[in-house]
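Exercise (ungraded).
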Amino acid sequence: MQYGSSGNTLNNFISNGSYSFCNPAFASLAGYSSLALLKMLGMSAYTVIQRFRTGSFITPEDDIYKKMMNQLGLSHGNMVGTKSDLVERARENHLNDLENIIPFVLAGLFYIGTRPKFDCALWHFRIFLLSRLLHTIAYQVPLPQPTRTISWLLGYSSIISMTIPVLRSIQL
Amino acid sequence: MQYGSSGNTLNNFISNGSYSFCNPAFASLAGYSSLALLKMLGMSAYTVIQRFRTGSFITPEDDIYKKMMNQLGLSHGNMVGTKSDLVERARENHLNDLENIIPFVLAGLFYIGTRPKFDCALWHFRIFLLSRLLHTIAYQVPLPQPTRTISWLLGYSSIISMTIPVLRSIQL
Amino acid sequence: MQYGSSGNTLNNFISNGSYSFCNPAFASLAGYSSLALLKMLGMSAYTVIQRFRTGSFITPEDDIYKKMMNQLGLSHGNMVGTKSDLVERARENHLNDLENIIPFVLAGLFYIGTRPKFDCALWHFRIFLLSRLLHTIAYQVPLPQPTRTISWLLGYSSIISMTIPVLRSIQL
């Protein structure tokens, strides 16, 4: 970590409060959130790959990509019937990530403010990240249900569990 | 609140800056944001309920849920025509939440950094949360327009109003 | 900036850590994030405008707006064929903003915790905001491809580049 002259960790922790990389729970949240966000950003790239594989683009100006693929001999005329399925599957997965990973990071930020026990926080983050990875695999392979539903439910429960101490410690 | 040995609230407020639960405006934001996020997460559960009620699922592997419902005698053959409407209504509502509640929390985090007056901040959060609850009721009942439009506009204005002090207090 | 009695900026910076408007990198993030969020919120208004221009609404209760437009002599019967295209283009653009601007703000918040050099942080934020403005123009005019793809890729790279120091400075 790039810390300046005030190198005393304990001192930093006291003076900086919860929102500092000296607080191991915040550093954990930063790491797991970044990994989850990268996984979500990866869905954009994955959707683009599926678009090129199936020749399925959304706007007329994207036709230059189709022409480019034809010139390179990469056209997939035989996949026309199934094209929207693969792209839609990637897009639905991406939307589900938005609906779960973003609330995880935001709920996590407030959760850190309640000064949770480090181990307790770490397991929330671990379970969430693993459940999202499993969810994506289950969605894209696809694995038989209810694998996808259960993996989604695990991550979902982890978010709700993090909001409870926040709601307890504040008055509206 | 679970505070450690440094129990002096005034001291904490001075040393921790704006982003601490000792700052009542931040604690308020945490509470109202968590409630808004829970309301948004609730839309996932609501969509699942609408899918089961109408037997409308998106992927082939979800067919086991249809079979399960048939075995339990819960099939709704007569609702086939309207099924997509109810699910789409829930999904559009969820997307609208994503487009408004997430920017609210993020704009709120920066707004807290400008040290707003507590009362002023609190009314922004209250109006936003109420407007989103009204928006959801107006969307799902559904109530006659322009109820939904007005409730959306209230929350939307609250977010924009919070970004003004942020843009004023910084130079780009 | 509205600072209270503790007016000593240097003192504030030391005692408040990274997440304070006294930290110029955080103030920058707040400004650029707010502008990006306002740009994203603008897509809601833009979609509403496109709906009214084309008379394309999603729910039956919105029919009162169609009637209102007819009474005002603003109906566009001749645009029925193209209506979904314009609205869909606005909606896809909005969704792309959600998929990129929200991760930018969240990754930026953790990036600030790694105490990046101010110049380095500022250029990340500048490139991101410009790339999103260019992306929107390229999407809505529309400009010929690959303008949209390149502008999207620039902003995307900026987010990924910000997560690298976060992942480096923490252990999972």
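Further reading is listed at the end of the chapter. For now, observe: Chain A has six helices and no strands. Residues 30-44+84-171 of chain A form a domain with the Four Helix Bundle (Hemerythrin (Met), subunit A) fold (CATH 1.20.120.550).
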